[in-house]
TrEMBL record:
Belongs to the peptidase M13 family. One of its GO terms (biological process) is protein processing. The lineage of its organism: Eukaryota, Metazoa, Ecdysozoa, Arthropoda, Chelicerata. It holds the Pfam family Peptidase_M13. This is Endothelin-converting enzyme homolog. Coiled coil: none annotated. Residues 39-153 form the Peptidase M13 C-terminal domain. It comes from the Eukaryota. SUPFAM superfamilies: Metalloproteases ('zincins'), catalytic domain (SSF55486).
Amino acid sequence: MEFFSNNLRVLQYDSRKEWKKLDLPSNRSEWMMSATSTNAYYSASLNHFVISAGILQPPFYDVDYPKLINFAAMGSIMGHEITHAFDDSGRLYDKNGNLNHWWKNSSVQNFEKRAQCFVDQYSSYEVLGTKLNGKLTLGENLADCGGLKVAYQ
């Protein structure tokens, strides 16, 4: 029982710490995950992406892999995160991380037309009897394809 009580206290401490941040300006140097996480993310409000050191392990990276595989994997991850800056939500933020309509109307219309192709394609897929919702997964689908394209180039 002591283990659970200690865990609860840690969660309460972390929650209080996060709530106190609401009144403070954004800390642009703070990461949203630990360095050992096997993950990467793009922050539109900070206009940066982070790839944690934890991702430098198989299947993403290995010193025994051929260099081209390691470079392709890292390029794909970086391309994925950079593409989020121009996906359905990232495109709404300007270079300073402010919510701002900065695209020309013709660019928005062109994006929406092309994005609808992704929505339609992914909505046609079914996994284990469940139909996918291409609208809900649009940002990730765009980023996956963008990351692969960058890695291939």
